[in-house]
Automatic annotation (TrEMBL):
Transmembrane segments: 39-58, 70-88, 100-119, 128-148, 160-181, 202-226, 246-279, 291-312, 318-336
Membrane topology designation: Multi-pass membrane protein
GO-annotated biological processes: siderophore-iron import into cell
Origin species: Streptomonospora alba
Identification of the protein by name: ABC transporter permease
Length: 344
C-alpha cells in the first residue's frame, strides 16, 4: 500500500520537472531575460493577476512571440512522441518499437518533400503548407499500413509491423525519387527532415492542439488496456477484453499523436524509445503510470534538447534530430544489449 501511495508522487514530480525545463527554455537565448522577470511577465498575462510586466517592449516580444511558442511546441512534440512510443512498445510488446513504426515518418517525409519540391510552382508560400502536407502524409502512411496488414491476413502485431516496414520502404523510395527529380530543392528538404522547432509559432501550436488533445486523452485512458494486453491475448480475452479492438484503438491514437508531432517538427528520432525506457525503470511496468510520465518526461526532455540545439554552437543552430540521435543512438545500443542478455 505504501508503494502504491508513493507511486502517485511521480506525476507531480513530472509536472515540476516540465515547469523547470520550460523556464530554462524561455530563459535561454541571446536576449538576457532573468527567470524572475519571465515569471512575472507570464503571470501578468493571466486574468485577475494584478502584475505588470517588468520587461521592455522588445524583451516582451522576444519572450511571447519567439521563445514561448517554441518551448510550448517542443513540449507538445516531445510529449506526443514519448507517449506514443510507450504505447507502441506496450501494444507490440517490443522494447524497440517507436512512433515511426507504421509508416508515419515515411508518409510525413513524402508529403513534405512533395510540397517543398513542387509547391513553388503553384503556391506563393509553400513552406507554410509543409506541416499540413506532412500531417496528411503521415496519416496516409499509417492508413496504408493498416490496409496492407488487414489484406495480408489479420491484425496481429507481427502482421502490422511487417506491413509498416513495407509501407515505410515504399514511401522512402518515392521520397528519394522526388528528391532526385528536384535536386535544386534538396537543401530545404533535408533541413526539414533533420527536424527542428526554429520556425514554429503559435499558428503551429494551434494547428496540432486539437489532434494532440484527442490523442493524449485516448492514450491516457488506454493504460488499463495495455496492462491487460501485456498478459497476452488469450488472458486478456478471458478477462473480457477484445484484444483486436483494444490494439486498434491504441495504435490509432498513437499514430495520430505521431502524425501531429511530425507535421510541425520534421523527423525527430529516438525520443519515443529513450524516454519510455527511462520512465519504465523509474515507475515500474504499469502503463497507467508509464503513459502520463512518458508524456511529461518527453515534453521536458525535448525542451532541454532544443535548448542544447540552439545554444551549443550559438549563434548557429544544430538540427534537433541530430542532437536526439547523439543521445538516442548509444541508448539504443544499450537496449539491444539488455534485450539480448535477457534472451528476448
Amino acid at each position: 500500500m505504501r508503494k502504491k501511495q508513493a507511486a502517485w508522487l511521480w506525476p507531480p514530480l513530472g509536472l515540476a520537472l516540465l515547469a523547470v525545463c520550460g523556464l530554462v527554455g524561455v530563459a535561454a537565448g541571446a536576449a538576457d531575460i532573468g527567470p524572475a522577470d519571465i515569471a512575472a511577465a507570464l503571470l501578468g498575462h493571466l486574468p485577475f493577476v494584478p502584475l505588470s510586466s517588468p520587461l521592455s517592449g522588445l524583451q516582451e516580444a522576444v519572450l511571447v512571440e519567439l521563445r514561448l511558442p517554441r518551448v510550448v511546441l517542443g513540449a507538445l512534440v516531445g510529449g506526443l512522441l514519448a507517449s506514443s512510443g510507450a504505447a507502441y512498445q506496450g501494444v507490440f510488446r517490443n522494447p524497440l518499437a517507436d512512433p515511426y513504426l507504421l509508416g508515419a515518418a515515411g508518409g510525413a517525409g513524402l508529403g513534405a518533400t512533395l510540397v517543398l519540391a513542387f509547391g513553388t510552382q503553384v503556391l506563393d508560400s509553400p513552406q507554410a503548407v509543409v506541416p499540413v502536407a506532412a500531417f496528411a502524409g503521415a496519416l496516409v502512411g499509417v492508413g496504408a499500413a493498416y490496409g496492407l496488414g488487414t489484406v495480408a491476413g489479420g491484425s496481429g502485431t507481427t502482421t502490422l509491423v511487417l506491413a509498416g516496414v513495407a509501407v515505410s520502404s515504399f514511401l522512402s523510395a518515392a521520397q528519394n525519387l522526388v528528391q532526385m527529380l528536384r535536386t535544386e530543392e534538396l537543401r530545404r528538404i533535408y533541413a526539414w527532415m533533420m527536424g527542428g522547432l526554429g520556425n514554429g509559432g503559435w499558428d503551429d501550436v494551434a494547428m496540432i492542439a486539437p489532434y494532440a488533445a484527442l490523442s493524449v486523452v485516448v492514450l491516457m485512458g488506454c493504460g488499463y488496456l495495455l496492462d491487460l494486453l501485456a498478459l497476452g491475448d488469450e488472458k486478456a480475452l478471458s478477462l473480457g477484453l477484445n484484444a483486436t479492438g483494444a490494439r486498434l484503438l491504441v495504435i490509432s491514437a498513437a499514430s495520430l499523436a505521431t502524425a501531429a508531432a511530425v507535421s510541425v517538427s520534421g523527423l525527430i528520432g529516438f525520443v519515443g524509445i529513450v524516454v519510455p525506457h527511462i520512465v519504465r525503470r523509474l515507475v515500474g511496468t504499469g502503463y497507467r503510470m508509464i503513459l502520463p510520465m512518458s508524456l511529461l518526461s518527453g515534453a521536458a526532455f525535448l525542451v532541454l534538447v532544443d535548448v542544447a540545439a540552439r545554444t551549443v554552437i550559438s549563434p548557429a543552430e544544430l538540427p534537433l534530430g541530430v542532437v536526439t540521435a547523439f543521445v538516442g543512438a548509444p541508448f539504443f545500443v544499450f537496449i539491444l544489449r539488455t534485450t539480448r542478455s535477457r534472451g528476448t
